[in-house]
């Protein structure tokens, strides 16, 4: 019964996503939602290493930039098709993540986070200063739109919206398979404690590196989509503030839950949009709201709901 309800819930979410363009009414809202979807994909990846494996990677936006620049450099400078470059965006990010993970994941807790913060800043500086490869502070202009697939073209905001939505659905489906598998339970065991995981025969380094690579693969893929959607990229995409934004999305939605990061990544940007009439003062309102959420809903929206449902089920079991 619970499995049926879960499937109905996912079908409802997909239906809302498919119907959104007809509810939005204009291209601006489509653009806002498409951008939110792209960052939702990256946030889902960050949640795998942070929420499920217990390692806060503060270089996540740097890996998103790696995916974006992979598409930008290959299409503009080497005349790859968008699809060929996009196919490599996540792979290049994951390959880089393998080597960074081997070094960084020997550290634990705050030391790991501080190390990845430094790595993220180094990635930002490389992008900003390496003019010959990344075009430096000018950025990469004229990134081509995704090529048509048969009669389907991607030259309008509506078509790009459905393209990004498709990859969000694929990403969520794949992540659901991962976290519900034996591999996902292995990641959770590592989050609960290294000693516990080792006592169960889990190879800590191998599984941490694998979680890290899968996480940054999502970031790279999101970056590749971002490059094809915006068609211009600059060093700012590697800024650590984007990682903090994604961390906020996880905290608001529910860290270590499947739907929570998605919910946070979709609701927070819209909240900031509705507060734009306050201009630079909007964060005076937005900041306290986030503080109150963290204080009174520490497990996030979805995490708090799941905890409430568990308590309710236990109470029913005792009264039966």
From TrEMBL:
Domain of life: Bacteria
Record carries keyword Transmembrane helix: yes
UniProt entry keywords in alphabetical sequence: Cell membrane, Membrane, Transmembrane, Transmembrane helix
A cellular component annotation (GO) from this entry: plasma membrane
TM annotation in the entry: 29-49, 56-76, 82-103, 110-127, 158-175, 209-229, 249-271, 283-308
Subcellular location: Cell membrane
GO-annotated molecular function: branched-chain amino acid transmembrane transporter activity
Membrane topology: Multi-pass membrane protein
InterPro entries assigned to the protein according to its UniProt record, in alphabetical order: ABC_transp_permease (IPR001851), LivM-like (IPR043428)
Record protein name field: High-affinity branched-chain amino acid transport system permease protein LivH
Taxonomic source organism: Polaromonas vacuolata
Source lineage: Bacteria, Pseudomonadati, Pseudomonadota, Betaproteobacteria, Burkholderiales
């Amino acid at each position: 019964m619970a499995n049926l309800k879960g499937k109905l819930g996912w079908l409802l979410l997909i239906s809302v996503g498919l119907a959104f363009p007809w509810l939005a009414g204009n291209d601006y809202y489509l653009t806002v939602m498409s951008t939110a979807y792209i960052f939702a994909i990256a946030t889902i990846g960050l949640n795998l290493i942070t929420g499920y494996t217990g390692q806060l990677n503060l270089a996540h936006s740097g890996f998103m930039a790696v995916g974006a620049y992979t598409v930008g450099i290959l299409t503009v400078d080497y005349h790859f098709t968008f699809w060929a470059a996009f196919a490599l965006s996540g792979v290049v990010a994951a390959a880089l993540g393998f080597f960074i993970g081997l070094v960084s994941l020997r550290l634990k807790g705050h030391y790991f986070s501080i190390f990845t913060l430094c790595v993220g800043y180094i990635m930002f500086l490389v992008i900003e200063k390496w003019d010959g490869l990344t075009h430096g502070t000018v950025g990469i202009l004229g990134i081509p739109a995704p090529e048509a697939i048969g009669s389907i073209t991607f030259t309008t905001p509506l078509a790009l919206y459905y393209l990004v939505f498709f990859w969000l659905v694929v990403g969520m489906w794949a992540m659901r398979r991962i976290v519900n598998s034996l591999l996902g339970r292995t990641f959770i065991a590592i989050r609960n404690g290294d000693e516990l995981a080792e006592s169960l025969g889990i190879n800590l380094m191998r599984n941490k590196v694998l979680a890290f690579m899968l996480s940054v693969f999502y970031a790279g893929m999101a970056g590749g989509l971002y490059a094809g959607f915006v068609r211009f990229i600059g060093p700012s995409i590697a800024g650590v503030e984007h990682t903090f934004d994604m961390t906020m999305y996880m905290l608001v939605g529910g860290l270590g839950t499947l739907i929570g990061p998605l919910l946070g990544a979709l609701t927070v940007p819209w909240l900031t949009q509705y507060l734009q009439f306050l201009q630079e003062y909007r964060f005076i309102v937005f900041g306290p709201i986030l503080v109150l959420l963290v204080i009174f809903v520490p497990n996030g929206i979805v995490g708090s709901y799941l905890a409430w449902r568990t308590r309710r089920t236990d109470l029913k079991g005792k009264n039966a």
